[in-house]
Amino acid sequence: MLSLVKTGQRGQMVVLTPVQKQRQAKRLAEAVPTLAAAYSQALGRWVGDPVLRLVGVPFITECYRSPERQNELYAQGRTKAGLVVTYKRGGQSKHNQGPPTPAMDVAFLLADGSVSWSGLLLSKFARLMKYADARVVWGGDWPSFKDRPHFEVLTDSSGKGGDGHG
């Protein structure tokens, strides 16, 4: 993943490329409106902060996920190489609802072009997400499996996010 680094009066800031911006818009469109709005507000606060924006930029790695993709991730750390990243099989995850989906995963694009899933960065972003909408739940707050990249909004009985109007 490549990024542009712009140098301004306040130092370097990571800026997404046009292709990355398109990908982000597509992923954001997969989210239920309440989650998309909370993410947009939190992102605006992040890049508006003179210190946080120098660290890197949050970006959505996944929103809607097919049950097949969910099963691929479930296999990771079990029958495929890698660490366990989910305890939900296809059809069991909030990512499998929709689209629009009430769940998204977030990571950070750093100035050197690398991707980070830093718990510290994600906890700071989680505060902004929860401030933007009290219905946002962060996977880092879960008592057992800490899914720090994961954000979701509480859904009503229809599976729609938020106040039931979406």
UniProtKB/TrEMBL annotation:
<dbReference type="Pfam" id="PF13539">
    <property type="entry name" value="Peptidase_M15_4"/>
</dbReference>
<feature type="domain" description="Peptidase M15C">
    <location>
        <begin position="91"/>
        <end position="153"/>
    </location>
</feature>
<dbReference type="InterPro" id="IPR039561">
    <property type="entry name" value="Peptidase_M15C"/>
</dbReference>
<dbReference type="InterPro" id="IPR009045">
    <property type="entry name" value="Zn_M74/Hedgehog-like"/>
</dbReference>
<protein>
    <submittedName>
        <fullName>M15 family metallopeptidase</fullName>
    </submittedName>
</protein>
